[in-house]
Amino acid sequence: MADNQAQTAFDNFVQLWTTGTTGGRRAPVLRRPDEVGLDYEDITFPSMDGVPLEGWFIPADSDKLVIHNHFLPGNRYGYPGHLPEFGGLGGFEVSFLPEYKALHDAGYNVLAYDIRNHGLSGQGNGGIAGIGLLEYRDVIGSMRYAASRPNTKNMTKVLLSVCLGADSTAVAWSKHPDEFSEIRALVMLQPVSGRPIVEEFIKAIGMEDGFEKFDRAVHERTGFHLDEQSPREHVKAITVPTLVAQVHDDTMTRPEDVQSIYDALTVDDKELHWIRGTERRFDGYNYFGVHPEVPVDWFDKHLK
To answer: Which letter does DSSP use for residue 248 in this model?
Structure first.
């Protein structure tokens, strides 16, 4: 890659990593649950530290609730990668709506929301991304909201946490384990550590000393180093049955990173589900919409 192109790619990825935005703009909440025939309620609630969070509650005729925590730079809807402005990642649309529809039809209420600095939620921490080190407060806020809402407080609760959402869940569990007393099971889709994903990016653009430069840029913008941004140590605090799913041949990271995160889980009841047949990370974000039986079977098994 030419030096100018490499530098532009580097600068764009630093911005994405540190703010969760593409071209300085948040991804819009482009679709709503009624597009797939679901009734829903617009909701708002505070994060643990008071950041206002926007979301949906999708009711089902049951006493089971899934709380959904999304990825960076998406939101509760997914990601509009099919639009030119947002096409640099994946190049196609991610939509969680088919997944929500399948969960609803399997008997699960759904609470989905925008993490801080994403979608329509408020800005927190000056707009910087912590890759879980700040966003964990939103996971806790969503559980507190579900525990206080009259029609969900007595529901049996599970978490479906994706990428940034998965890392945030792990950090929250290690910092505030008492907040998870009502959670019965967890699905983590594509948790990730900072080092391998940045190393693969730097290798692709061919920038000399690129990792050190990237780490320095992240530290200067956020105060965090890349090696802090991993759920590997935090997942040791998780206490419920956990399924981890990941695109095995994901060109944006390395399978051994996810394997190490899975291996670090101390719970006996765990499972690693490799997604085959693609090299595109963003295909993984659509995977449960095509194969909802993976999370549904896991949750059903542990709510009996």
So the answer is: T
| Rounded Cα–Cα distance for residues 275 and 281 (Å) | 10
* Residue 64 to residue 135: CA distance in whole angstroms: 25
Phi, psi of 44 (to 5 degrees): -145, 145
pLDDT string in tens for the chain (304-residue length): 667 888 999 999 999 999 999 888 999 999 999 999 999 999 999 999 999 999 999 999 999 999 999 999 999 999 999 999 998 898 999 999 999 999 999 999 999 999 999 999 999 999 999 999 999 999 999 999 999 999 999 999 999 999 999 999 999 999 999 999 999 999 999 999 999 999 999 999 999 899 999 999 999 999 999 999 999 999 999 999 999 999 999 999 999 999 999 999 999 999 999 999 999 999 999 999 999 999 999 999 999 7
The torsion angles phi and psi of 107, rounded to 5 degrees, stand at 100, 25
Type of residue at 49 = D
Residue type present at position 223: G
- Measure Cα distances from 162 to 6, 131, 187, 287 in Å: 29, 12, 8, 11
